[in-house]
Amino acid sequence: MITEIGHLALILALVVAILQSSLPLYGAAQNRAALMQFARHAAIGQLGLVLLAFLATTYAFVVSDFSVMLVANNSHSAKPMLYKITGVWANHEGSLLLWILILAVFGAMVAGFGRNLPPTLRARVLAVQAMIAVGFIAFTLFSSNPFTRLWPPPIDGKGLNPLLQDPGLAFHPPFLYFGYVGFSITFSFAIAALIEGRVDPAWARWVRPWTLWAWCGLTFGIALGSWWAYYELGWGGFWFWDPVENASFMPWLAGTALLHSAIVVEKRDALKSWTILLAIVAFSLSLIGTFLVRSGVLTSVHAFATDPARGVFILVLLVIAIGGSFALYAVRAPTLKGGGLFQPISREGALVLNNLGLTVALATVFLGTMYPLFLDAMGSGKVSVGPPFFNSSFVPIMVPVLVAMAIGPQLAWKRGDLAGALGRLWAAFGAAAGIAMGGMLLTGGGDILAVLGLAVVGFVLMGVAIEWAERVRLFQAPLAESWRRARAIPRAAYGMSIAHSGIALVMLAIIATTVWRTEVIQVMRAGEQVNVAGYEFAFEGVRDLNGPNYQAQRGTFQVARNGRFVATLEAEKRFFPVENQATTEAAIHTTWFADLYAVVGDPDGSGGWTVRLYHNPMVPWIWIGAVVMVMGGLVSLTDRRHRVGAPATRRRRAIDHGMPQAAGD
Questions:
Q1: Per the omega criterion (within 30 degrees of 0), is the bond before 396 cis?
Q2: For residues 568 and 598, what is the distance between their CA atoms, to the nearest angstrom?
Q3: What single DSSP character describes residue 527?
Q4: H-helix or E-strand containing 612?
Q5: DSSP code at position 270
Q6: What global pTM score does this model have?
């Protein structure tokens, strides 16, 4: 009965979404307040109905209702409760329901917290958001119904892919979807602005917090997925340029560019058309990622579905959403006149350079990801585009972007002094030179590109510190004045500095672990030992054991350095009888500056086991840096200016256009 209630709730949500996508648009065009106000109530009502459908599905998983086909195909009575719950979204149908739920959450957030928005803009934003919901709810009901009954029900379910029975991947999809779907709001703002034919600094101020929310969610979701791949797959790496990994990385690049572009719109009333385009591109790439994962064009541990019929349905949604939005952009974008002018050497110019670099990097990843798929679809054979292509093309493009991160904040708005900015960064140049010379001495002149990369990272980190010191006049004024200045710095500025520092930390860790990683692959027998980067790994053999719903073979290593005990590493091969699948569980000991990493493979038939042993320097800082980036975004979100709408200097213009003043202005 509860399943049927959930099914009915989702059907009603579709009806509400259809009404929400049409009536408010008519009301905004005719300036009818009641119809525009209907959008708020419909968005909140849609959230309630979708939440009811999601909870009904969750209940079916928790009680192991195998009369529901989705539960029978993706759960088992012996599965731990955590994975019964997270198993709701560890499949195609349930993950779509989660997507729709987050979509409804963002719509309801605009309805509830967007009271300072102009009524016409809010009505149009919520109507566009509802159009997206109509497409995905219809897709779910007609092609991927999670409430389909199975009769007679089986005695037990088929279980869940063992790779998904892990805390890292259990919580990876919700955060990733929060980012994916979060860009739907910026997309809705962009389409609403095109319909109205007006983009101004107030619009940019309203869009930025939603972009930040999506960016934070996507950043954390990507980091969780990378962490899971690192410790669960047993390959010793953190990123493999898998097409599905790229599918989440591309919206992140577009969203990062959008964040910086919106600043120029807000500060200088410029780059309007470009910012609208980025908002459309960011969500379009999210939709393309959905197509890649669910259409069957990819075979990946990340892929949800392999049904071509569903792929066709998604392709139709892509054509309507992406094609329609770009058509509207082509018609209305020329009417968006530019505002303030600025010189190439200025804070705005640095942000434009940032956008160009990120866009070219995005185009590179898009080409490397889609080109093989396009050739395969055209019957022109299979082409493999792997890490060598991406590393050799993507990395050089990002170097100017990193350098601009340090120089840009030193430049003034509208017209900057490059010589003065570089002069203030003398300590950063000194740090970069010192790192380069020290790196050359330590490596004996080898790995020049890696050393230069570390020098760039040092330049960025020191540049962030110098920018803060300049703001507070550190060592240039009494400490009391510096403290007063530090307290007066906007939180958004602190958030920028923290996020930039996080990016530098991630780059530092990636360079170190990629270039100086030590890997040993060999057959070992009990009692043997091997040296890995100065650590002695003594293999004690393999023993059998039983887990809650799996059988395991555990290999034990005693690790020492210079005769002193360091750690005991226990790596496992697990077999899940219900799913008839095996997984690899790496053993990892971290010193925060490096990881010792061990994996047990297959036996050789004569008492030996294939083992893979790694020393990964600095790798923990990849995820520490990602968390720092997210913290920077969250700190920026606490800035009051992100909650009050239009800047005070724009208040008169807002009133002239019939917009209400922002609360607190």
A1: no
A2: 10
A3: T
A4: strand 609-617
A5: -
A6: 0.90
pLDDT per position as a tens digit, 467-513: 999 999 988 889 999 999 999 999 999 999 999 999 999 999 999 99
Q: Are 373 and 344 in contact (CB under 8 A)?
A: no
Strand order in the sheet with 594-603: 518-524, 609-617, 594-603, 587-590
Confidence bin at 78 (pLDDT 50/70/90): confident
Distance, CA of 252 to CA of 246 (rounded, Å): 10
Burial class (CB in 10 A: 0-12, 13-18, 19+), 663: exposed
Residue listed under structure tokens 């990994």: 245
In the block, residue with structure tokens 């600094």: 201
Give me the half-sphere count of Cα atoms (radius 13 Å) on the Cβ side of residue 52. Answer: 18
Least confident piece of the model among 2-6, 345-349, 560-564, 652-656: 652-656
First to last CA, the chain: 51
Environment class of residue 157 by beta-carbon count within 10 Å: exposed (0-12), middle (13-18) or buried (19+)?
A: buried
3-state secondary structure 264-302: HHHHHCCCHHHHHHHHHHHHHHHHHHHHHHHCCCCCCCC
Tell me the per-residue pLDDT of 368-403, one tens digit each, with 9 for 90 and over: 988 887 787 677 777 778 888 998 899 899 999 999
Q: Which helix (H) or strand (E) holds 96?
A: helix 92-113
Q: Please answer whether residues 129 and 137 qualify as being in contact, where contact means their C-beta atoms are separated by less than 8 angstroms.
A: no
